[in-house]
Amino acid sequence: MERLYRNITGESAEFSTFDEAEEAFLDVDWDDNILLEFVDQVKQIVEKGENRISETYFDIIEPDSISTAFLERELSDPAYDPDAEGEEKDGFEYQVADNGNIRGRYVYTDVTTNLTFNGEIQPTMSDGFIQFEIDPDKRLLIIKSTSVIDVQKARKYFNNKTSIDFAPAADYTTHTDGAVDRINNFLAEFHDGIPSDDQDVPGLLQVDTIKLEDTSVDSSDEEDEDEDDNGQQLENIQFEGHDIKNDDEVQSYLGDDSPWVIKKLEAEIYYEGDNFKVTIGTTSMMSYGKVSDSTDWQATSELSSMVREWFLEHLRVRDL
Fold first, then answer.
1. Can you tell me the distance from the alpha carbon of 246 to that of 266, in angstroms, rounded to the nearest whole number?
2. Which of 96, 101, 169, 235 is the most buried (most CB within 10 A)?
């Protein structure tokens, strides 16, 4: 409870009884943004037991001109209807922040079919939600998850119910030019190693995982492709180990004329006295940034903001 209170208020507290915790939470100045943060925190604690911020980034391609007012119209129909039945509830809930960004969630209904002991089929319905943020100035949609199921579910609903057309912000399997340089520029934002006390920047300790994809492979053409020792085409290779960023074998796949690109990278980052795992992904399905492996929510949030800023500055493939 102390951790949850600190995460949503930024203040430390110690509770020896439930009544003390209840009184402290009742004194919180609740608004819609804090309530959304509270729900997200509870979900993370229940499901993961650690602080984790996961964001998937999409460029808004169409329409040519977007505004907060336009987005409000798009998200107001269909709006989430808690009084409706079944999937008729499904829709958007949102709030407009002071900077004009939209913070909201797509609320959906899952229907599970169960078989009773009597042989009867009994449907069970449960509500779920996927949070998102839209920045109209940056033409950016952020889905607050890196779960493939969540992202695909939200993406399908946006496609079916709105006139917004969007695409992954950093798809290096399609936009291959300068892909390696972009990732190197992203990593260069971090201090090399543990920073000194007077440096308020995160430090890159090591890169643990690099996953590569061969963009020249055509699944319909099995001839003239690299093969492994078993005669199978190599479309993906994953390297894992201690500080493999400059490994000779990894670098041999990333020359100027090489069709191989980095589609996933995991790095160990030092920030505010704690170690974090930062993961980035750059594929045709989703491009994302994730910060995890810490119990310090404030530091996780700060580091995630930096990862987002550097991701969009260096890894985004379109100039919107």
1. 14
2. 169
**In the chain, where the domains are located:** 2-50, 63-166, 179-315
Which residues have C-beta within 8 Å of that of residue 14, sequence separation ≥ 6? 2
| Alpha-carbon span 52 to 273, nearest angstrom | 17
As a whole number of angstroms, the distance between CA 194 and CA 187 comes to: 14
Residue type (1 letter), 34: I
Tokens read off for 137? 């100035």
CA distances to 97, 147, 211 from 130, rounded to whole Å, are: 18, 10, 27
Q: What is the largest CA-CA distance in the chain?
A: 71
What's the pLDDT tens digit per position in 233-258? 568 899 999 889 889 999 999 887 88
- Cα 71 off chain centre by: 21
In angstroms, rounded to a whole number, what is the distance separating the alpha carbons of residues 53 and 296? 12
Rounded CA separation 246/14 (Å): 46
93-151 pLDDT, tens digit each = 999 999 999 999 999 988 777 777 777 777 677 788 999 999 999 999 999 999 999 99
CB atoms within 10 A of CB 237: 15
| Nearest one of 149, 190, 146, 184 to 168, comparing CA atoms | 146
Which 8-state DSSP code applies to residue 177?
A: T
Residue 20 burial (CB count, 10 A): 13
pLDDT tens by residue, 307-317:
999 999 999 99
Question: Half-sphere exposure (CA, 13 Å, Cβ side) for 232?
Answer: 5
CA-to-CA distance for 270 and 206, rounded, in angstroms? 10
pTM over 0.90: no
DSSP assignment string, 48-102? TSSEEEEEEEEEEEESSS--HHHHHHHHHTTBP-TTS-GGGG-EEEEEE-TTS-E
210 contact partners, CB below 8 Å, separation of at least 6 = 238, 239, 244, 245, 250, 262, 264, 265, 266
